[in-house]
Amino acid sequence: MKTPILNINQFVETIPLSDFYVNSFSNHLDLNKKLISRPHKHNFYLCVLFTKGTGIHEIDFNSYKIEPGSAFFLSPGQTHFWNFDTQPEGFIFFHSQEFYELQFLEHKLNEFPFYYSFQNPPLLKLSAKNTDSISQLFDEIYTEYLGLKASKKLKIVSLINLIYIEFSRNYTHKTELTKLFSPSYLNILEKLVILINENFKNEKLPKFYANRLNITTKHLNRVIKETINKTTSELISERIVLEAKRLIVHSNESLTSISYNLEFSEYSYFSKFFKMKTGSTPMNFRKKYREN
């Protein structure tokens, strides 16, 4: 069973607009039940704000509470699944990277804290006042999306930008990211995360990443320690474990094949590494997750 990767074009649209989709969450749920009824990935950026409803949102094996005022942010490749206790209401939109960045050439999506790194929480809890004001912007996007006025795409992207700015202000306040680090440190962290995502399968040592960044391993570790209080090795290991969990649970590959896929020379070494990082063997993790 391979984890499905959903494309924007698969979702039911009222008025097509290339690389973009928006809907009320209740409509989205009704129209796309078959697509989102089990764990899946996306090849786009997703943003959702709940105004009503409760439940659990599982993102990359971490569970988050859904309640009024919950906002979630997913980047391409993340695995997620909804489980609702009460009927949800709110808004959802998603878009490709190009849809946003071609309009804002000087600003990239990964400059927003919630899309910056898989290390940053994908959840923001808003006050009732902020939930109401931001949901009005979502509603304006939805109204614009259904209409046929001039400069439709430009207005939608501008409203998305306003929403992301408001979310960023709340996010940095809530997660105490206001203790800003030097731009050079943040630039190194950003580049490191990209390099790890591209190379974690076959490059597992900090020295490779330090060389690619043209800095010493010692300085790289200093940067990572000061910004997110981890080591480079921990970041690499976390990315390997995340991919291992995705493959163990959402594919029917043998565990030996998964270990080779992740460039481990022996399954026994992979199993020992996985248990050391998670407290569970790959076999027990697969069995427990699928039983639940």
TrEMBL record:
PANTHER family: ARAC-FAMILY TRANSCRIPTIONAL REGULATOR, TRANSCRIPTIONAL REGULATORY PROTEIN. This is Helix-turn-helix domain-containing protein. Residues 190-288 form the HTH araC/xylS-type domain. Pfam families: AraC_binding (PF02311), HTH_18 (PF12833). Keywords: DNA-binding, Transcription, Transcription regulation.
